[in-house]
Design a protein that fits this description.
The chain is of the alpha+beta class. It contains 6 helices and 7 strands, in the order αααβββββαααββ. It folds into 2 domains: 1-84, no CATH class; 94-154, no CATH class. It is globular.
């Protein structure tokens, strides 16, 4: 099952309170980590109900998604893809970090999204997600990814 983290972003009034292109807000204010834990990770974790909310917030309409809870199939594995997820207190069993060097990020990020790059630089500096991950995929060259397992890789 895939539950994208961006389905648990905060409403625009909170997410964009400091403007649409504030990298600090991108880093700290976009994800509602408590809601993701409460509505997905807790219910699907040990002792949980087994019913999860697949999405909380509809970003396109900027309103509650009003999605019904869904039962997870027995033995389900939940993938939570998203950016800047480590270091916010999520109880994740296994973390795979897609690492891109700052130079590659700058080359591959569209011009209208370059404003967010300082958030990713800050994330690398403050959280060091590659050191925390169970596996790291080096993604500087998308046609030649490299997988590094377990702990510190560089």
């Amino acid at each position: 099952m895939v539950v994208p983290a961006d389905g648990f972003y905060r409403p625009a009034s909170l997410r964009l309170e400091h403007g649409r292109t504030d990298p600090d807000a991108r880093y700290t204010d976009w994800l509602d980590g408590n809601a993701l834990s409460r509505e997905v990770l807790g219910p699907l974790g040990p002792g949980g109900s087994g019913e999860y909310l697949p999405v909380l917030w509809d970003l396109a309409r900027d309103r509650a998604a009003r999605a019904p809870r869904q039962p997870a199939p027995p033995g389900a594995v939940v993938l939570v893809p998203g950016a800047l997820l480590q270091g916010v207190g999520l109880a994740l069993d296994v973390v795979v970090h897609l690492r891109m060097s700052p130079a590659a990020r700058r080359r591959r990020t569209p011009a209208d999204e370059q404003w967010a790059l300082p958030a990713f630089d800050r994330y690398d500096d403050e959280v060091d997600p590659a050191a925390l991950a169970d596996a790291v995929v080096l993604a500087d060259h998308p046609d030649k990814p490299a997988l590094v397992l377990g702990g510190r890789w560089a």
